[in-house]
Design a protein that fits this description.
Layout (H helix, E strand, L loop, with lengths): L7 E3 H21 L3 H13 L1 H16 L4 E4 L3 H12 L17 H8 L4 E5 L2 E5 L1
Antiparallel strand pairs: 1-2, 2-4, 3-4
Helix pairs in contact: 1-2, 1-3, 2-3, 4-5
């Protein structure tokens, strides 16, 4: 299950979960011989948490366009810290004054957001790229 509290969600995760939920819905429809029973079961599914998740995930996939990854707003600062630490060498050791330098990760994260698109998923902001 994909939730709004996940730190990072990939397009693959979304597509895989949509396939899983659509399969459940399809299997449910195939279970009933009587068309009225099948329609009632599908309506029940559509109103269930799984049905609401399926609709939300399809909308999310449309909203993110060609983006491959969604980063939860509450995790974005840590995400940017990891990128900076992995990709850049910040030498704060050695001689004065360099050993007193610090990185303003919050400012870097705020500036990085201009390269991302914000999307809402179940009331939570995610940054897509």
């Amino acid at each position: 299950m994909i939730t709004s509290t996940d730190n990072v969600i990939t397009r693959h995760d979304i597509e895989e979960r949509i396939e899983e939920l659509e399969s459940i819905r399809s299997d449910l429809q195939d279970t009933y011989d009587d068309m009225n029973d099948a329609e009632e079961a599908l309506t029940d599914f559509d109103n269930s948490d799984d049905g609401k998740e399926l609709i939300a995930l399809k909308e999310l996939l449309d909203d993110i366009g060609g983006c491959d990854e969604l980063i939860n707003d509450s995790y974005f600062l840590d995400y940017i810290k990891d990128i900076i630490d992995e990709c850049y060498e910040i030498n704060t050791s050695g001689d004065w004054p360099y050993r007193h330098m610090t990185m303003d990760y919050e400012a870097a994260a705020d500036e990085a957001k201009q390269d991302y698109t914000s999307v809402e998923f179940f009331g939570q902001t995610f940054w897509a790229r």
